[in-house]
Each structure stands twice: as structure tokens, then as C-alpha cells.
Specification:
By secondary structure, this protein is an alpha+beta fold. Helix 14 (440-457) packs antiparallel against helix 16 (511-521) and helix 18 (599-606) packs parallel to helix 19.
């Protein structure tokens, strides 16, 4: 038997050895490479036997010229050997075997020659120490399991880094080492680039002037940058890991809001952008943050958490507030000019009419006309005041179910007189009722403001068309004119407070701002269609209601509901002229009036009076205000009815706790005053005919 017959016979044994040694290897070329490594060992054994003339037991191998040449130079004719040699030599991963006794190479594949630049004959004459530094060779021999970092000398003499995995195998009486190499240059280059990117990202996260954080689906922090750590009072970002907002904030409601925002992003898989959040910082101060949250996804695209970026905009908000205040002060100056102009006109009418009346003899029929002029001027002043209150959202709203068709019809005549005879007013009303829930006065204010705006846009005349209708769940109110229209930059500002295109003193800039505020307060919206030379149309949408319009309530026009002759009223008002007017009105309807100019004086008077039925008091006064006075009076005399007067609508809140009290806004007529006093008495006593005189409660003075 020759060595070519022993070659395939050794393969099964070597295959088992190598498979057991290299199964599951992560190095390219080893996993599943049973045939390859069996080939390496078998080739090494055959090579050594030929070189050393080693014959297997029971077989004589003759030396001399008749011996077969090395397998690396001449093929072994056996078919299986040819297959294994082909697999080994053509494998793309560099692989070789060396004798651990001599450290000389006994087998190499073509990938070694291509990668390291050696000729096969040259490399087979070298040892392991010829192609790597001694310390690397020592580490390889001392650590046979690998993987091991290795510096391999190529044919040019340069050292290149590679990673090798080796196994010690005994076969045919020889101790061999199998080595498979992988070039780590590309990997190290990629690792270096990756590290550079990581360092760059870390540098950005460290120095960006925003807090960056990321959490898992349970809103537990899994990381943050330095800025976020500082804002939470932490020293290093790692301290945040595993904590929640509840752990990091003093305000539970802030933590709950943050968790809710996280939940919205995670469940919707959509970003939540530009959200202003107020947080309490570790030092107890409050700060405003502009926060953006986006979903955190894994490599498969699944949402596994949330990433957030928060910027502290407290200083910017403060600057914006200061700028807004400066603009507001400038606008108030413009407003003052417009309001002063309007009020001066009204005062001129009042003053002139009074002087004219004084110059007329008693009973002159012209006196009535001048009085009417005074009353009209006062009504216009009242309307201007209410417009200011409506603009500031401080005019109380009294919503009721109204038919827009009726409101427009009833106001049509007034609008025609308001805008003049050069403009035609046309109405296109829906055939069915268009019901909304709104304040009638507010709706009339909207129509009047839009009509005045249209009049100013049509100085040479034109048409004003008012349309009503129903569109789905909304009632539609459209006001269109054939005026000059507006360019886009003017349209963008028309609802801004105090914005006006009129010259100084000709407008307050509140008309359209008031319209916008009233419509929004009613739960609706407004849209403007306009272009230069094409007129302007305001489309107003209000929630439609299906409830029928309640029947109108009839009220007497010249007398109160009932006259309470003999009732005693305590009147408290710090403004003398107002106090005098109110007293005259009450006494004119049969009330006995005791007056005081402040709350403290009123309490002193009560110590000497036993017959107070009604307290009529201003809400805002120096010292004790009207509400506190009413509470003190009710504490001693629970049966006293109360009427609150005020020129400031927000003072309604000061009347809290007096459900049966009546609020009377200034200005008011004597008839308004008497109606309110009668209502207050009825609500308090529940008996229109009974006199409300009650004994003082325990602890009060004897009356």
C-alpha cells in the first residue's frame, strides 16, 4: 500500500477530530468546515510523510527518485484527495497548518498567497517565527484556543493586523496546529469610523443646549445627556437610568403630564411637537420648556419607547412678554386716542344740549328733543363701554336659544340707518329657522361691527348682503360687501387687538377683534374671503341647536313689577353723584333710604336702625368692599336682601356666596334699579307681600 491509499483512510478520523474542535466557530471558514480542516490535517500528514519518508505501520515507502513529489506540487491521483485539496486551496479565507515541533508550514491555501504576497515554495520554507513577531508566536503557541490578535508579516516585510483561530490536532503521530486567519483591517477601520461617529454623537449630546432623554415603554429613563441630568439635579447622566419622572420631580402633577405625553407618543407612534411644559427645577423655581417627543424604534421598526428634546425657553418667554407688553402699551395709546375721540363727541352732544336747554323757557317743546339727544349720546357711550368689555372678554354672556333669521330681521332697519342711504342692505334668510345658543346683544354687536366695517370699505356706496343658513351641525351667518377688499398682509392682522387701517382718532381697532372674541366665546369660528377690489365676505359658523326658540318675555315699559312703598333701603356708594341719583330714584318709588359713603359708616348706622329690608351697595369701594359688607350684614340680619352695583363686570366674582343677590351693572336707568330691588326682595323673602324685618341673631346688638 502506498501513501496515496492512506490519505483517504485518514480522513474519517481527522474529520471527527476537527468537527469536535471547531463546531460552532464564529471565524469565517470554520463554521461547518469539517471537510476543509480534515483536508488540512490530512494534507499535512501526507506532506510530512513524503518529506520525511514516514511510512504508516505495515507499509514500506521507498526513498529515491521513484518517490512521489509533494502534494502541493503534484496532484494526488485519488479522487477524494483531489476534492479535498480543491476545497482547501480555493477557500476564500487564509488557512494554513504548521508543525508544532519545527514551527514550519506544512500546508497553505491560495488565499494565504493572495493576501500576504508570498510564493508557495517560499512560504513552505519558512517557519511561524519568520512571519510574525516572537511575542505573537509565543502567544499563539501558549493560547491554542483563540481567537487571537496576530501581526502577520507580508512579503514586503510590513506587519498587518489579523485575527487567527487555531486548534491543536494530533494525527498520524504528528502534532499539528490548524490556523484560520481573518483580516481585521477593514473591521478595525469600520470600528474606528464607528467610534468616531459615537464620539461625535456623544460630543453633540454633551454640548447641545437642550435636554435630550430617552425612555422605555413604561416611561422609565434609559438614558439622557448632561443637560438633562443637570436640570434634574443629577451629577452624571447615568444617574437617571431606571428612574421615572415621579422619582425626579417634586410636583406629581408635572410627572403625570409628562407620563401622559409619553403615552400619547408611544400608543400613536406619532411625534408630539412644540409642547410648552412648565416644570419645577431642583432649586424650586418654575421654568418653561418647549418639548418635542418622537417614538423610539428598534431595528424592526417597533416602538420601544420615546425620545424627547426639551429646551428651556423661560428667558425667551419673558422677553416675549416684555415685548408684548410694550406693544400693548403702544396699542393702548392708539386706543386711548380713538376712545377719547368718540367720548369727546358724545360729551359735546350732552354738554351742548344741556346748555341749550338752560337757555330755553320752561315748557318749550324743543326741550324734549334736546333730552332725546342727551339720551342717545348716553346710549352710544354705553354701547362703546360694552364693546370694550366684550373685547376684553369681561362682558357677561347671557346665552339663549335664538333664531338667526329673527335677529337679522329685527336689526335690519337699524343697520340701514347706521351705514347710510348710499349702501343697500340685502338679506338672504334661510327658509327654516336657524337656531343657535348665544347672547342676543353679542350677536347684534357682531352684525353692527361687521356692518360698520363694510360701510368704511364702501365710501362711494355699494351693497351689504347678510345671509343665514344651515351647514351640517353648524349655523351659517355670512356678511358680504362690495367694497375695496383687503390685501393679504392686512387680512392677516384684522383680528389683532387695536389693529386699524383708519387714521388716528377715526377708529379704536377693536371692532373685528371684538367680533372674533364673541364668535369664539360662542363656540364658533370665523373665516374671511377677500382680495383687493373684490369685496370682503365674513363667514361665521356657530353650533346649531334643535331646541325651539322660547317665547319672548314681556316686561312693562313704564312701571316696575310692583311698588314696595314703606320698604327701607340702606344705600352704600362712595361716589356722591351716583349715590344722590340712586337715592332720588329709590325715594321716587316709595322707598325710605338711609345712605352711607363707605362700608364702615354703613355698619355704624346699622347699630341704630331696626328696619332695614334691602342693602344696595357698590362692590368696589375704599376700605371694606361691598361683598364683605354684605357678609357682615347678613351675619347679623339674615333676612336682608342685597343688590350689588358695579361698573366692572369682573366684580361678579366678588358676589360669590350670595346666590339670591342681584347684580346691577352700571350704567343703569331708574327703572333698571327698581326692577332689581324688587327681584332681590322677592328672592330673599319668598313672599311679595310680607315685610322682611327679622330680629338679630345671637351675638348681635339688641334692636
Amino acid at each position: 500500500m502506498t501513501d496515496r491509499t492512506e490519505w483517504p483512510a485518514a480522513v474519517p478520523e481527522l474529520t471527527g477530530i476537527v468537527a469536535a474542535s471547531f463546531a460552532g466557530s464564529s471565524v469565517p471558514g470554520l463554521a461547518g468546515g469539517t471537510f476543509l480542516f480534515a483536508l488540512i490535517i490530512a494534507a499535512a500528514v501526507v506532506k510530512l510523510r513524503r518529506r520525511r519518508r514516514i511510512s504508516p505501520p505495515g507499509v514500506n515507502v521507498l526513498a529515491g527518485p521513484s518517490a512521489p513529489p509533494p502534494w502541493s506540487e503534484a496532484p494526488v491521483p485519488d479522487d477524494t484527495s483531489d476534492l479535498f485539496r480543491l476545497l482547501f486551496e480555493s477557500h476564500p479565507t487564509p488557512a494554513w497548518a504548521f508543525d508544532e515541533d519545527s514551527l514550519r508550514f506544512v500546508a497553505i491555501n491560495d488565499a494565504v498567497l493572495r493576501r500576504f504576497g508570498y510564493a508557495r515554495e517560499r512560504l513552505l520554507q519558512l517557519s511561524v517565527r519568520d512571519v510574525c513577531p516572537d511575542e505573537d508566536a509565543d502567544r499563539l503557541l501558549g493560547a491554542p484556543c483563540g481567537p487571537l490578535q496576530w501581526r502577520h508579516r507580508i512579503a514586503s516585510g510590513a506587519l498587518v493586523p489579523i485575527e487567527v483561530t487555531s486548534r491543536r490536532v494530533t494525527a498520524g503521530g504528528l502534532l499539528l496546529r490548524l490556523v484560520v486567519a481573518s483580516d481585521t483591517s477593514d473591521r478595525r477601520k469600520a470600528e474606528g469610523e464607528l467610534k468616531e461617529r459615537d464620539d461625535l454623537l456623544q460630543n453633540v449630546l454633551t454640548n447641545v443646549p437642550c435636554a435630550v432623554f430617552w425612555k422605555d415603554r413604561a416611561s422609565i429613563y434609559i438614558g439622557c445627556n448632561d443637560q438633562a441630568a443637570r436640570e434634574h439635579g443629577l451629577t452624571v447622566p447615568g444617574e437617571v437610568i431606571g428612574q421615572t419622572d415621579e422619582d425626579l420631580t417634586r410636583a406629581p402633577e408635572e410627572a403625570e403630564r409628562a407620563r401622559e405625553s409619553d403615552r400619547l407618543v408611544i400608543e400613536s407612534a406619532q411625534p408630539l411637537l412644540d409642547v410648552e411644559e412648565t416644570r419645577t427645577l431642583p432649586d424650586g423655581t418654575r421654568a418653561t420648556f418647549l418639548t418635542n417627543r418622537v417614538p423610539l424604534r428598534d431595528s424592526a421598526g417597533r416602538v420601544i419607547g420615546v425620545v424627547g428634546v426639551a429646551q428651556n425657553v423661560t428667558s425667551r418667554k419673558r422677553l416675549e412678554d416684555e415685548l408684548r407688553h410694550a406693544h400693548k402699551m403702544e396699542a393702548i395709546g392708539r386706543l386711548a386716542g380713538g376712545v377719547a375721540h368718540d367720548f369727546n363727541n358724545l360729551l359735546t352732544i350732552v354738554t351742548g344740549s344741556i346748555h341749550l336747554i338752560r337757555g330755553l323757557p320752561a315748557g318749550d317743546p324743543m326741550i324734549g328733543g334736546y333730552v332725546d339727544e342727551i339720551q342717545a349720546a348716553v346710549d352710544r357711550a354705553t354701547a362703546l363701554t360694552r364693546q370694550l368689555l366684550a373685547f376684553s372678554r369681561k362682558q357677561p354672556s347671557r346665552p339663549e336659544v335664538l333664531d338667526l333669521n329673527e335677529v337679522v330681521s329685527e336689526l335690519g332697519g337699524l343697520l340701514a340707518r347706521l351705514i347710510g342711504n348710499r349702501i343697500t342692505v340685502r338679506t338672504e334668510l334661510a327658509p327654516e329657522p336657524v337656531r343657535v345658543r348665544a347672547d342676543r346683544g353679542h350677536l347684534e354687536q357682531v352684525l353692527m361691527n361687521l356692518a360698520v366695517n363694510a360701510r368704511d370699505a364702501m365710501p362711494d356706496g355699494g351693497t351689504l348682503c347678510i345671509t343665514t343658513g344651515l351647514t351640517g351641525p353648524f349655523a351659517k351667518l355670512a356678511v358680504a360687501d362690495t367694497g375695496c377688499g383687503m390685501p393679504e398682509h392686512v387680512k392677516a392682522k384684522i383680528f389683532e387687538p387695536f389693529f386699524t387701517t383708519k387714521e388716528m382718532g377715526k377708529g379704536t381697532g377693536l371692532g373685528l377683534a371684538t367680533v372674533h372674541g364673541i364668535v369664539e366665546q360662542a363656540g364658533g369660528g370665523i373665516e374671511v374671503l377677500t382680495a383687493p377690489g373684490a369685496g370682503t365676505t365674513f363667514h361665521i359658523r356657530l353650533p346649531a341647536v334643535t331646541a325651539p326658540t322660547p317665547p319672548p318675555v314681556t316686561t312693562p315699559g313704564a312701571a316696575p313689577v310692583s311698588v314696595r312703598a314703606g320698604r327701607t333701603v340702606l344705600l352704600v356708594e362712595d361716589e356722591e353723584r351716583v349715590r344722590k341719583t340712586v337715592r332720588s330714584a329709590l325715594e321716587g318709588w316709595g322707598y325710605a333710604v338711609t345712605e352711607a359713603d363707605r362700608a364702615e359708616t354703613a355698619l355704624a348706622l346699622l347699630a341704630t336702625r331696626r328696619d332695614i329690608d334691602l342693602l344696595v351697595t357698590d362692590l368696589v369701594m375704599p376700605g371694606m368692599d361691598g361683598r364683605e359688607l354684605a357678609a357682615r350684614v347678613r351675619g347679623e340680619w339674615p333676612g336682608v336682601a342685597v343688590v350689588f352695583m358695579s361698573g366692572f363686570v369682573p366684580d361678579l366674582r366678588r358676589a360669590d356666596g350670595f346666590a339670591d343677590g342681584v347684580f346691577l351693572p352700571k350704567p343703569f336707568t331708574p327703572l333698571d334699579l327698581i326692577r332689581c330691588t324688587e327681584r332681590a326682595l322677592r328672592q330673599r323673602t319668598g313672599d311679595a307681600g310680607a315685610r322682611a324685618r327679622l330680629a338679630p341673631t345671637a351675638g348681635g346688638s339688641e334692636l
